[in-house]
Amino acid sequence: MTPTLIERTSGAGEQTLLTDVLIIGGGVTGAGIMRDLALRGLHTLLIDKHDLCAGASGGNHGLLHSGARYVSNDLHSAIECRIENELLKRLAPQCVEDTGGLFVAVEGDDPAFAEAFPGFCQSAGIFCEEISPAEARRLEPLLSEEIFRAYRVPDATVDPFRLALENVDHARMLTDSIYLPHTEIIRFEIDAGEIRAAICRDNRTLAALRIVAKQYVNAGGAWAMNIARQAGCTDVNLLYSKGTLLISHDRMTHHVINRLRPPGDGDILVPGGTVSVLGTTSVRTDNLETNRPTVAEIDTNVIEGAAMIPALATTRYIRAFSRVRPLLQSSDSGDGREATRGFALLDHTSQGLINFCTITGGKLTTFRLMAEKTSNLVAERLGNTQACTTDSVPLPGSAACRWTEPGAAPRYWYKANNPDDMILCECEMVPQSAIDEIVRCAPGAEADMTLEAIALRSRAGKGPCQGSFCGIRIASYLYDRGYYRDKTGLVHMRDFFNERFKGMRTVIWGQQAAQMELAEALHCGLLGLDNLDNE
Amino acid sequence: MREETRKFDTELAVIGSGIAGCAASIFALNRQIDCAQVGNTGAVAYTTGYLDLLGAIEESSAAVAKPWEGLAQLKNLHPDHPLSRIPVTDIRKGFDQFATFLGECGITYTAPRESNITALTPAGTLKKTLCVPATMAAGPEAFADKTPCVIIDFKGLKGFSAREVVANLQDQWPTLLAARIIFPDMDKGEIYPEVMARALEVPATRTRLAELLREAAGEVKVIGLPAVLGMHRPDHVRAELEQLTGLTIFEIPTMPPSVPGIRLREMFEQVFPEKGITLIPQQKVTALSFDTDGALLCLSDNYGPITIQAKAVILATGRFLSGGLEAHITGISESLLDLPVSQPPSRTDWYRDGYTDRRGHPIHKAGIDIDTSYRPLGKNGKPYNEHLFAAGIILAHQDWIRGRSGAGIAIATAYKAVEAAEKFLLAQHA
């Protein structure tokens, strides 16, 4: 293991970091590679231009696929999902809720597809049990009465934030590997078929950083093609698909509910702690940076979802979000659903580089497998002969990573039974001690953490008020602790509310409109956060 | 058991118990109009206690120092704004009557002045407002004079941090300090402003608190506290604490639901019946219908169904938070009569992209339209019914949040709606 050395060059004052492997991209794949390599004794640096799970890793349903979704059109992916689903349930149970899943066909869906479904599952080795529509409605009372066929499959849910945090944390414990948020690649220094250094920028301080590694891994997800091109590689070809999802105020079902038909809009409802996630629309996009839900996408999801679960037409939604998925380019079909959901590992030797590789495509469920394949290549190139062990070593839980788990915070709080440990986020029961723990030692915690960074590491702001009250309380608490000493806390508050609003803008109707009116009266009418720059 | 319907007859029924509804009842009292008030108290508990008239011109970023002059500017830029349609003299009369009434009932307010007061917020930011409760008045004065001052907070009271107030004001107020004390008999766990305020109704608690305050103040002569100084006699509680400590004491509003809002609600609920208003608080009107003689309101409370026959009705049901307007996936509606709502063409246009955009969001300008006699318009563009009037922030073409003008719109339009209703009632009697 190479210790990380920090040097200062005399001229520009630019910092240099040394490591075995630089991993670019803090999604679950990058975090998984970090841990996989650390288990082989290697030191790594993980960087992300935003923060953990800022891309597709954080912008999905949190579904741990059984594989059944892919049995009709992508048998290979279906089998990978089945294997990874079983591994994660066993090795990272703290990140998984084993909800089980249902596939349901409603009147108007193709009966032939429903008929063929168990056979498809069988060829992928996926457990699939037919149950009567009455039994399905007994299990899930909100299901439509129009259901004519139903199957049970071993779908589950997974918390990608906790998964990423714990992978990063384990790597830190094993080899002192380091995660740097807000650090973006500016360019690579390339010489004689090798990357010699990656020149990065801290996006908050704009300070330059030079990272010298033996191997460079591009785990940039949807941004992987752009990063590869910065290294002069033209062999990564991605399509981008924008997906839009909604989060309901209540948990609507116990199981993951899938529409029993080929993939389409609004065909899945995934529970997540105290809420449910409905999705998804899928449209091609070329825009990687500023995708936001549109009212039309929201309405499509609601209308389609209501065919399975009629209550989706009238329930309260608290949030919507859009993220871009990278799809490997293999065809030119319309919406990206037909493009392969598999992943690709490119070693870039054809591009004249021997210490750079790119991993992209794939999905949350197969992140470990993607990390394994990538780490195998990296370890071999480094002459490291240790085998991958992420398929047998359990993921250790970490106290500072536990606050992202939906519905878990109240449990920890009652257990600690300390009346002075006050609840700051009342929707999700996040206490002061959680904020202390996150600020002190969660992965990526730094000197000037924003409210957004704290929220990413906890459930704070994820409930029906979407942070409009707890944002104020957490800021107050941080002022109290001396963490904020000037107007920075106000600016963080405003930025946090603006960020949360992006996800609320298209779903503000019903009770949410009342909630927004109160929030705005408080944030702008009273506190004047709309006028901070003019004071 | 079949419950008997209780029936009331009144000249004027006010639907809504927010600032607009309560102001309408006060103006009706002052005009000796027989009056009944019904409806959820809704958002009163969410007020800070500050009475804003005009703190900013909508869609611009400048704070308004002189609100009465600001009204002229508002009229130029937004001629259809409810405040642009009311003579300034009437707005003054409304404010004077409203503030005077509150003072007579035990919650003294500063009198409206030519300039806005620069008032303090729980985050240590500043806010322009016209009148503040007497319990808060010394804060803006100390800020204006930069008098040495200690902001005191309480262990266990979350959302109010003295250090936060100080951190954000220290540039402008270098002599400001922070201190924390333990509220008498509340040393464990979370404590709540409402409970603290009720505890301070007891003289013994005040004596003990006074000792702690004196200690925390040290050499400093002015202290600021979160708004917890009593529920029913705040002026008395503050005066006694000042006397016991020898200090000047002021309150700063807390996060809602806040004590100053609850004070107003409880005061109205006590005083209105004493003054002869038929008050049925906390209940929503379920149906409102009209015949040639007037209006029939249906509702029920814990004792059974109630009907109110009224010759005139003022609709002051507020916006989304209070339930006067409803936002649906397909559009915005008025909840009681399905009155037409002036609104953006589609849901896509309700909100801008940036939440804290200084220009505000188009959804806030949605609301009902009225004619010059404060009668809501029906679908044909004519008054919905001659017996029906409307007031408050349910009215269209205003953004009370960005304009810092909620109380101003509520009080001024209530004043005009009652005036119009009185004119109508007198004509009926003639």
Summarize the structure.
The complex is a heterodimer of chains A (535) and B (430). With 535 residues, chain A is α+β, with helices and mostly antiparallel strands. Chain A has helices at residues 28-39, 75-91, 111-124, 133-139, 160-175, 224-230, 295-308, 367-381, 409-416, 432-441, 451-456, 470-480, 488-504, 511-526; strands at 6-8, 15-24, 44-47, 63-64, 96-97, 101-106, 129-131, 147-153, 156-158, 178-180, 183-191, 194-202, 208-218, 238-248, 256-259, 268-272, 275-284, 317-328, 343-346, 356-361, 423-425, 430-431.
Structure description:
The complex is a heterodimer of chains A (535) and B (430). Chain A has 535 residues and is α+β, with helices and mostly antiparallel strands. Chain A folds into 3 domains: 6-55 and 161-237 and 342-381, FAD/NAD(P)-binding domain; 91-158 and 241-321, D-Amino Acid Oxidase, subunit A, domain 2 (D-Amino Acid Oxidase, Chain A, domain 2), CATH 3.30.9; 399-534, no CATH class. Chain A has helices at 28-39, 75-91, 111-124, 133-139, 160-175, 224-230, 295-308, 367-381, 409-416, 432-441, 451-456, 470-480, 488-504, 511-526, and strands spanning 6-8, 15-24, 44-47, 63-64, 96-97, 101-106, 129-131, 147-153, 156-158, 178-180, 183-191, 194-202, 208-218, 238-248, 256-259, 268-272, 275-284, 317-328, 343-346, 356-361, 423-425, 430-431. In chain A, strands 1, 2, 3, 10, 11, 12, 13, 19 and 20 form a 9-stranded mixed sheet that branches. An 8-stranded mixed sheet of chain A has the order 7-8-6-15-16-17-14-18, with helices on both faces. Chain A has a 3-stranded antiparallel sheet with strand order 4-9-5. The radius of gyration of chain A is 23 Å and the shape is globular. In chain A, 57% of the residues are buried. In chain B, strands 1, 2, 9, 10, 11, 12 and 15 form a 7-stranded mixed sheet that branches. In chain B, helix 1 (19-30) packs across helix 11 (406-429), helix 3 crosses helix 11 and helix 7 (203-217) crosses helix 8 (234-245). With 430 residues, chain B is of the alpha/beta class. In chain B, 31% of the residues lie in helices and 20% in strands. Chain B has helices at 19-30, 67-77, 88-104, 138-145, 162-169, 193-199, 203-217, 234-245, 259-274, 400-403, 406-429, and strands at residues 6-15, 35-39, 117-120, 126-129, 149-154, 176-181, 222-226, 248-252, 278-281, 287-291, 294-301, 304-315, 325-328, 331-334, 388-390. The longest helix of chain B has 24 residues, at 406-429. Chain B has 11 helices and 15 strands. Chain B has 2 domains: 6-106 and 262-429, FAD/NAD(P)-binding domain (3-Layer(bba) Sandwich); 122-252, Rossmann fold (3-Layer(aba) Sandwich), CATH 3.40.50.1860. Chain B is globular, with a radius of gyration of 22 Å. The relative contact order of chain B is 0.18. The interface between A and B is large, with 58 and 56 residues.
